[in-house]
Amino acid sequence: MADRLLCETDMAFQLFDWLNVESRLSDSEFDGETARAYFDLSQKLAADHFLPHYKTSDMHEPRLENGQVHVLPEIGTALAEFRDLGLFGASFPENLGGMGLPYLLSSASYAWFAAANCSSIGYTMLTGANARLLAAFGNKVQIDTFARPQIEGRWFGTMCLSEPQAGSGLADVRTRAVADGADAHGPRYRLTGNKMWISGGDQDISENIVHLVLAKVPNDAGDLPDGTEGISLFIVPKVLPDGTLNDIAVAGLNHKMGNRGTSNCLLNFGEGDGAVGWMVGEPGQGLRQMFMMMNEARIAVGFGAAALACRGYLLAVDYARERLQGRAIGQREGAPVAIIEHTDVRRMLLAIRAYSEGAMGLCLYCAALVDRPDDAEDAALLELLTPVAKTFPSEYGPKANDLAIQIHGGYGYTRDFDVEQLYRDNRLNPIHEGTTGIQALDLLGRKILREGSGLKVLERRIDDTCARAEAFPELSGNAAALRVALSQVFSTVDAVRTHPKDRQMDNAAPFQTAFCLVVVAWIWLDQAVAAHSLEQGLPQNDRLREGKTTTCRYFFTLELPMAAPLLAQVASGCDVTRTADPALF
Amino acid sequence: MADRLLCETDMAFQLFDWLNVESRLSDSEFDGETARAYFDLSQKLAADHFLPHYKTSDMHEPRLENGQVHVLPEIGTALAEFRDLGLFGASFPENLGGMGLPYLLSSASYAWFAAANCSSIGYTMLTGANARLLAAFGNKVQIDTFARPQIEGRWFGTMCLSEPQAGSGLADVRTRAVADGADAHGPRYRLTGNKMWISGGDQDISENIVHLVLAKVPNDAGDLPDGTEGISLFIVPKVLPDGTLNDIAVAGLNHKMGNRGTSNCLLNFGEGDGAVGWMVGEPGQGLRQMFMMMNEARIAVGFGAAALACRGYLLAVDYARERLQGRAIGQREGAPVAIIEHTDVRRMLLAIRAYSEGAMGLCLYCAALVDRPDDAEDAALLELLTPVAKTFPSEYGPKANDLAIQIHGGYGYTRDFDVEQLYRDNRLNPIHEGTTGIQALDLLGRKILREGSGLKVLERRIDDTCARAEAFPELSGNAAALRVALSQVFSTVDAVRTHPKDRQMDNAAPFQTAFCLVVVAWIWLDQAVAAHSLEQGLPQNDRLREGKTTTCRYFFTLELPMAAPLLAQVASGCDVTRTADPALF
Predict the structure, then answer these.
(1) Are residues B343 and B427 in contact, defined by beta-carbon separation less than 8 angstroms?
(2) Cβ-defined contact of A340 to B582 (cutoff 8 Å)
(3) d(C-alpha B16, C-alpha A177), whole Å
(4) Which phi and psi angles does B356 have, rounded to 5°?
(5) Beta B275-279 vs B186-199: how paired, if at all?
(6) Shortest CB distance from B414 goes to which of A255, A398, A402?
(7) Distance, CA of A150 to CA of B42 (rounded, Å)
(8) What is the pLDDT of residue B291?
């Protein structure tokens, strides 16, 4: 069962052979053997407790009764197992009650669970992000009171950013926090406002829920400050420390296409006297604090999307091996063959593998960067690659799941087969934690045109990969193609710099599409090189090397070439979208 | 309400200005005015009776109780209205009780209904195809007994091709038809076998159901003939002419991702003494008969996919005009703007429009070809374009719906907004009536390498369009690009002819992707030319001309350029998928 979640061989290759995770563990108490045991445990727990209710949690959505959200009990049971093994605290330091695991290891573990049941494990991701924010910016009492129970997995957490009238536009947040003295937990406020799209916003499977809420403190005239500068961050628990319920009402549940096990709520804060909340850190720092965590949150979305794509790949491979239909072209005699014998089915499998393993590799690479914040090169590269790690898996993961359905034919369109649900579940990922369009602005505007240092690091790493690839005849052509593509990225960026300032973002989206292709081509080539360095003559290594090389070649042949025409349009300053009059539509 | 189904202005432009439908009506009793009245009626009926239960029929799937399938009663009510207006017979000749409408008109009407509720109108499409097959190949008694009640809309029809073990592989059909004498309806047989994926396979909203079943007649030793040559076609009604129930059991209902209003059944024929059926035409002609209808069935799938995409476009445009969020780049003051002001939202709207209107144009063009079977050029072009009319809308329609969700942000991911359902409904289309991969084999293998005359016709038509486009400065660049792309198609085909026979289909899928882009680029350019020929100075004409020109330019800028790198790989005989060892996956 477990090997149907993610490809164990590939995950081991990526972590131990490609990213050489054991060398990174040298200064932690973890060693390679413990890491492997941790993965085994994750796989087993995911397969035994998360996968079995994957379909059930899709069929039985959270429901709202008398103001309380009820979720499928199996979700609570699975998360209790997760908690009892201490996994909520996996990546937290030991002095906070955690295990002190590197982010790379804890996020690889997360991928197993996301492959098994993305909406159940979603609660732990939100809880971890919440506790990490508190650990970074809260005072000691706040950490002890609100972070530690989350690290223990007894309380769960949420992030309350969006409002019904302001989704991605946080400058327009209207939730109001009025000063109400102070106590041991810090400066106290009363909050009033509506928060939309709150994942885990209410449920009945944790003892308490810690909401981290973005809100604005009115000035003396009672007006809220303009822009994002006036946004502060508040801790607003469902149950107050004195055991009474806070002034928070569940105004509604969103009924989603997929990802249904994670409740998603409209919360009304302060329908009565105002919800009690405590400010985290200094006033006006809310967005900055939230964005300190954003890289990890965005990479986590990438991991989730990649995991769903990888599971779909395994399901498609199994189906293609088992399903007998048709004969080779020109053959009319004999028994039907397994559909994996048909060239076009293999083309789809190669595409799915290229997207899913490439996405997973990209996310693992970025997770390794997260673990080295003090390395200036790694930090710069992480900034550059974060929108890519969010976007490529989110956009190509659903494409991979789409092809997995196609391989299943009519069966894939029915709810009896998990590929159908994977496709719906994965559709969320291009939307949350910053849409694909917002990532494109971040990538081209902030990370490349404004900062720029990450691109130079990427250039050096790609150059290094290509140099190593050139030693292998079957990879040297790919290396040459990658060098050409990278130079086109640079010339495109140079061209965009010459465009008028107010037009430089006109083609951020096609630029990002092309940039993603170049980055993932590099990930594939780098993995193919690493696969060539495995010990020769062992059947499992030979198979892995041939699989990586073939998929790499597929990506360079039928995917990377799409970058050039897009970059050419970006460089030329194509104005078709900017000049399109809104009245024409 | 009605104008939210399809863009009325654009449909009128495509039919009356671009395809000049009035000139085609000259030898029918229909004139332009009657055609417009027919469209108004279709729109109104679709909006009043089909749209209102779009969401309801998704939420309340057909259910099986005591061997009988029950569908949402609103579906029956809507189809009764459709029947009472005589619309089941719209495209049938008057001597069969129909209205004698050209296929172009009846299929444009179908598009309105498909936009409103694809799964409810699906029953009429199946019924029409069934009756048309009977009218073409049945004897007089069969036509009177089984076709006429369908043309009247009292009985519904199905097509029973697939079996659980043989989806697209019809050579492996195992349903057995044993001779059982003859009667007024023709040679009688007893059928035994299982048929899978039968849309409308059972329901409780028509008086009877006429199944057209592909089956094989065993030889004297009791063995079924190999291959597709032994397949015959049988009429197997749910209720026999004597009023008794035939030996057909509903073995199960498929629970689909979307398109839920259309019941989809596994039918067991002959659990008892064998289901009674009558052969249509000669033995061994079943597949040939079925494929005589296949062009229309495939174009109808294209229409459905295009209609869902077009409706999503209108919903996305409305949302983008109404939703206020964010400010222009660099602006921090003032109120939030409508998101249509953001360049990237307009990019998505242009993409949706390019896909959806392009798909609709392609289908309408093909429908016009269906109406001229005696014109050798048109007939050859229809053969060539049928897989394109099936594939482009099926593949790009879901992409359009995907972008419509993206424009809606989180709201688009909820079941409160129809874009969510459109996306699920449209996912069926790349699968049924021949998957995208099967269309690619048909396009490159049969229609181009084996037949080839359609490609020459296409070349002349594209040449004609380009010549007319060159008269308009803002279109001449597109004409030049299209000529280059077409010449690359020809050189690619020439290259493929030089490849070894058993390798010529290796890259049929990327060839088809590129070919679709070239064909749809031509459709866009041809429409842009037609829009330039509209009377100048009328605001509605100016707006239409500018909209067509801008969308055409978008397609040539950011979509058509993807064709060249794909064609280059096809021409080079790229062997990455053929040589990929199944054991590697």
Answers:
(1) no
(2) yes
(3) 60
(4) -75, -50
(5) antiparallel
(6) A255
(7) 58
(8) 87
Test B350 with A580 for CB contact under 8 angstroms: yes
Answer whether B416 touches A (CB < 8 Å).
yes
Q: What is the ipTM of this complex?
A: 0.97
CB B300 within 8 A of CB B332: no
> Residue A2 — very low, low, confident or very high, per pLDDT cuts 50/70/90?
very low
Neighbours of A553 (CB within 10 A): 24
Closest C-alpha to A503, from B169, B427, B330: B330
What is residue A472's DSSP assignment?
A: S
pLDDT, one tens digit per residue, over B501-522 is 999 999 999 999 999 999 999 9
Contact (CB<8Å) B423/A420 = no
Separation between Cα atoms, residue B325 and residue B337, nearest integer Å: 6
Check if B433 is active-site.
yes
pLDDT tier at A252, thresholds 50, 70, 90: very high
Q: Which residues contact A35 (CB under 8 A, 6 or more apart)?
A: A15, A21, A22, A25, A105
How much is the mean pLDDT over chain A?
95
Under DSSP, is residue B19 helix (H, G, I), strand (E, B) or coil? coil
Burial level of B295, CB count in 10 A (0-12/13-18/19+)? buried
The position carrying tokens 């969020």 is B325
B29's CB contacts (< 8 A; 6+ apart) are B100
Whether the CB of A334 is below 8 Å from some CB of chain B: the reply is: no
Per the structure block, which two tokens stand in for B563? 């064709």
Name the DSSP letter for residue B447: I
The reply to whether the predicted model has a pTM over 0.80 is yes
**Angle value at C-alpha A276, between A204 and A184, nearest 5 degrees:** 105
Torsion of CA A130, A131, A134, A136, to 10 degrees: -110
Give the pLDDT score at B169. 78
CA A72-A74-A76 angle, to 5 degrees, is: 85
Percent over 70 (pLDDT), chain B? 99
Interface check A300 vs B, CB under 8 A = no
pLDDT tens digits, A282-309: 999 999 999 888 888 999 999 999 999 9
Contact A256 B415 (CB under 8 A): yes
The separation between CA B344 and the C-alpha centre of its own chain, rounded to angstroms, equals 30
The token pair at B492 is 């690619």
Confidence of residue B27 (pLDDT cuts 50, 70, 90): low
For residues B381 and B362, what is the distance between their CA atoms, to the nearest angstrom?
Answer: 12
Indicate the helix (H) or strand (E) that contains A415: none
Q: How many CB pairs under 8 A join A and B?
A: 258
Nearest CB among B172, B565, B582 relative to A336 is that of B172
| DSSP letters spanning B202-245 | S-SSSS-EEEEEEEE---TTSPPPSTTTTEEEEEEESB-TTSPB
Which whole-number Å values give the CA distances from A479 to A471, A476, B341, in the listed order?
Answer: 10, 5, 41
Q: Which of residues 543-572 of B touch A (CB under 8 A)?
A: 543, 546-547, 550, 553-554, 557-558, 561-562, 564-566, 568-569
Cα B345-B350-B356 angle, rounded to 5 deg: 125
**pLDDT tens-digit profile of A65-120?**
999 999 999 999 999 999 999 999 999 999 999 998 889 999 999 999 999 999 99
